[in-house]
């Protein structure tokens, strides 16, 4: 089913006789979907409002992300949360949609400084599991009472409702950027260095570490953005901070863009066999947790708070990790054989709350049924 309007979408859902696979561009397909019928939202598309002076954009959920980024560029603006392009990692095609970005709360390296997708989502319109059209939030940041449905829908993967429209806060593009590259650090040394930089006054907007970078050697990346004078000063101060290390400063715009896209899209693990796990944890715990994984390949983002791990097909990262303060998500799984659940099991109290919310917004249990199991 491919509805072209919100009303058609509501009719499709209200008349559904069984589970529905909710899909935007189909570029972020993860998890198990127990549905024979696919409901595509790409027909509900278009930017309905863009006010550069107010840093506000409103778009229909099926609008391609590329279309939104193209509209922002002439006004020298961007989506600060740096949404990922997972097509290379997942082997998918098509175009990512803004609805899919919000539904998955897709947030890249800049999350450590700017915040996540949900922090820039001002309002939503969506259709719940009964076919009822609901809206929450608006076009400005404000406090709310009761359910904050904007944040509730962000990262719900279509299980609470099907997005039809999102309002987003945009951000001006910085004048320039730089990346401090520290070569040869061990994982523990890298996490310590990233934590030190993030705790400094130099406003880091990206902190990542690859035990085996593009050249096969360890590299730690610290990004700074802003006005030319400020970036130059901060880059030099960071060089001094790590004067006992092998440090270089990258200023080429093209190399910076490619390097952080490499981190954002987990290019290190594209076109390589195996399962890909995404582990959120305390940065200080990251090196030990990564050691337990015995992974084929690793990438640390968010200053060590996010670990990407490439493991053998059918491997269960959760069993290897044991009890830890975080959660592990199976982003890319083997095509054959039994696989662990995609999402980390929730604590009992949270699982009860999640079940109650799904029963409230999707009483028939038809929206992306099974994806959270």
How are the elements arranged and paired?
Elements: H1 6-14, E1 20-23, E2 37-40, E3 47-51, E4 56-60, H2 65-72, E5 77-78, H3 87-90, H4 98-103, H5 111-114, E6 121-127, E7 133-137, H6 149-153, E8 162-169, E9 171-172, E10 176-183, H7 187-198, E11 204-210, E12 219-226, H8 228-241, E13 246-250, H9 253-264, E14 275-280, H10 286-293, E15 297-301, E16 306-311, H11 317-321, E17 327-332, H12 348-361
Parallel strand pairs: 1-2
Antiparallel strand pairs: 3-4, 4-8, 5-9, 6-7, 6-8, 10-12, 10-13, 11-12, 14-16, 14-17, 15-16
Could you report the average pLDDT, rounded to the nearest whole number?
92
Structure classification: alpha+beta
Output the helix-strand order: HEEEEHEHHHEEHEEEHEEHEHEHEEHEH
- State the low-pLDDT regions, or none: 141-146
- Rg over alpha carbons: 21 Å
Shape: globular
The CATH topology of the largest domain turns out to be Uridine Diphospho-n-acetylenolpyruvylglucosamine Reductase, domain 3
Taking the alpha carbons of the first and last residues, their distance comes to: 24 Å
How does the major sheet shape up?
A: 5 strands, antiparallel
Put simply, the count of helices is 12
What is the CATH class of the largest domain?
A: Alpha Beta
């Amino acid at each position: 089913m491919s509805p072209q309007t919100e009303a058609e979408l509501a009719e499709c859902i209200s008349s559904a006789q069984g589970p529905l696979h909710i899909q935007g561009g189909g570029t972020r397909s993860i998890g198990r979907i127990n549905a024979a019928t696919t409901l595509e939202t790409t027909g509900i598309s278009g930017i309905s409002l863009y006010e550069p002076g107010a840093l506000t954009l409103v778009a229909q959920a099926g609008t391609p992300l590329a279309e939104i980024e193209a509209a922002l560029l002439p006004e020298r603006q961007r989506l600060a949360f740096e949404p990922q392009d997972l097509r290379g990692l997942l082997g998918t095609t098509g175009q990512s949609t803004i609805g899919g970005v919000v539904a998955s709360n897709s947030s890249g390296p800049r999350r450590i400084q700017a915040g996540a997708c949900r922090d820039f989502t001002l309002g939503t319109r969506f259709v719940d599991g009964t076919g009822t059209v609901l809206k929450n939030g608006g076009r400005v940041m404000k406090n709310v009472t009761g359910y904050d449905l904007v944040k509730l829908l962000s990262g719900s993967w279509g299980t609470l409702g099907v997005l039809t429209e999102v309002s987003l806060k945009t951000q001006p593009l910085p004048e320039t950027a730089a990346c401090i590259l520290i070569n040869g650090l061990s994982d523990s040394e890298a996490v310590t260095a990233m934590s030190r930089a993030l705790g400094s006054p130099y406003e880091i907007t990206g902190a990542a570490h690859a035990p085996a970078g593009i050249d096969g050697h360890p590299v730690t990346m610290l990004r700074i953005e802003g006005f030319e004078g400020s970036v130059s000063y901060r880059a030099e101060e960071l060089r001094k901070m790590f004067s006992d290390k092998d440090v270089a400063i990258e200023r080429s715009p093209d190399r910076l863009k490619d390097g952080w896209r490499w981190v954002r899209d987990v290019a290190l693990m594209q076109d390589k066999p195996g399962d890909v796990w995404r582990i959120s944890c305390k940065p200080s715990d990251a090196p030990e947790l990564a050691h337990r994984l015995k992974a084929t390949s690793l990438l640390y983002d968010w200053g060590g708070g996010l670990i990407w791990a490439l493991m053998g097909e059918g491997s269960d990262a959760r069993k290897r990790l044991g009890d830890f303060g975080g959660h592990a998500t199976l982003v890319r799984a083997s095509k054959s054989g039994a696989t662990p659940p995609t999402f980390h099991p929730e604590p009992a109290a949270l699982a009860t709350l999640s079940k109650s919310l799904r029963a409230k917004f999707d009483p028939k249990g038809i929206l992306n049924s099974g994806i959270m199991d």
